[in-house]
Amino acid sequence: MGKKVRIADVDQVPEGTAAEFVAEDRIIALFHVDGQYYAMDGVCPHAGGPLGEGSLSGNVVTCPWHGWQFDVTTGQHCLNERLCHPTFPVTVEADGIYIELPEANSE
Ligand code: FES
Fold first, then answer.
1. Which of 31, 8, 35 is nearest to 85 (CA)?
2. Is 92 in the pocket of ligand 1 (CB under 6 A)?
3. Residue from 41, 62, 63, 69 whose mutation best tests the ligand 1 pocket (most atoms within 8 A of CB)
4. CA–CA dist 52, 7 (Å, integer)
5. Does 107 map to a domain?
6. What is the reported pLDDT for 1?
7. CATH classification of the domain holding 28
8. How many other CB atoms are there within 10 angstroms of residue 77's CB atom?
9. How far is the CA of 51 from the centre of ligand 1 (A)?
10. pLDDT at residue 103, as a whole number
């Protein structure tokens, strides 16, 4: 069981967009696709680019720095099947959007 952290208001990430937030000490990219929210580690594994500032097309985000692409619903890199970027469960509650981060000692 991870730690539930509120990261955004429900109206902060309109449908079809991405945004970057900080939860605890992590940068989180939050995506809104087809009425669902998806959270992924916001730091691109290539060279640290801001995935939350990437362009979103359907369920694929393109890193703004060098164009690596990820399926935001799974974290899967679109070309390298061995590369899967961390994602976090998202829940929407009356007072905002929450993600579940792993406990510090479980990583
Ligand atoms: S930092 Fe994301 S593609 Fe290079």
1. 31
2. no
3. 63
4. 13
5. no
6. 74
7. 2.102.10.10
8. 17
9. 8
10. 83
60 lines ligand 1 (CB under 6 A): no
Evaluate: CB of 63 within 6 angstroms of ligand 1. yes
Structural tokens at position 25:
């000490």
- Domain hosting residue 86, numbered range: 3-102
Structure-token pair, residue 64: 């703004």
**Could you identify the atom of ligand 1 that is nearest to the CA of residue 49?**
1
Instruction: Give the CA distances from residue 50 to residues 41, 63, 66, in Å, rounded to whole numbers and listed in that order.
Output: 9, 7, 11
Tokens matching residue 17: 């967009």
Closest listed residue to residue 33, CA positions, set 63, 54, 4, 61? 61
Length of the chain (residues): 107
The list of the chain residues with pLDDT below 50 reads none
- The pTM assigned to this predicted structure is 0.94
Report the distance separating Cα 28 and Cα 75, nearest Å.
12
Domains in the chain: how many in total? 1
CA distance linking residue 50 with residue 67, whole number of Å: 11
